[in-house]
């Protein structure tokens, strides 16, 4: 079921409300909550709303589903996006768990992030976007690690992705499907007719591994 919204503002309001509810439930149940964000255009207005939300952010950890293997000073950094748009205002006290590290390779960065992501799981809320090639996180068609990343019984939660795929085609660090399925709720945020068609009628792409699984609750939020 695809939930349709008139515009980006309406979608962002619904996503922010769902996130506040999920974080509040996590805080009430365990005294701590977690939000795994994503990069790109779709989550940015959601981050803007959440930065002012009445949440006990000091007990929330924020992470990412994927990031480019670039420092936070780069405009391609998803960490930079989250810091600039979410971790400010009321949300400034939240802790941040990075995927990028200043090490020689994305695989080395993934090794550093792996135990921290495992310790944080299960996640109270996960945001995902989707490319027009059907990729989610940095599980990208054509990548030499895509098959391993989509293995539902794979041992890794975090993998390095070599350069050469995606836009921009830089090296990346990504959560795997087993890690994505650790979310208590996932919001897939998409925009435009092409992406709706992929979700509604496609098959065989990384996003469909999420759409066809029954372990982790998933909502698809779409606007034209």
UniProtKB/TrEMBL annotation:
Q: What is its EC number?
A: 3.1.1.31
Q: Name one GO biological process term.
A: pentose-phosphate shunt
What pathway annotation does it carry? Answer: Carbohydrate degradation; pentose phosphate pathway; D-ribulose 5-phosphate from D-glucose 6-phosphate (oxidative stage): step 2/3
Protein name as catalogued: 6-phosphogluconolactonase
Q: Where, by residue number, does the polypeptide cross the bilayer?
A: none
From the UniProt record, report the name of the gene that encodes this protein: pgl
Reaction(s) catalysed (UniProt annotation) = 6-phospho-D-glucono-1,5-lactone + H2O = 6-phospho-D-gluconate + H(+)
Q: Domain Glucosamine/galactosamine-6-phosphate isomerase: where?
A: 7-204
InterPro entries in the cross-refs: 6-phosphogluconolactonase_DevB, 6PGL, Glc/Gal-6P_isomerase, NagB/RpiA_transferase-like
Q: Which family, according to the similarity comment?
A: Belongs to the glucosamine/galactosamine-6-phosphate isomerase family. 6-phosphogluconolactonase subfamily.
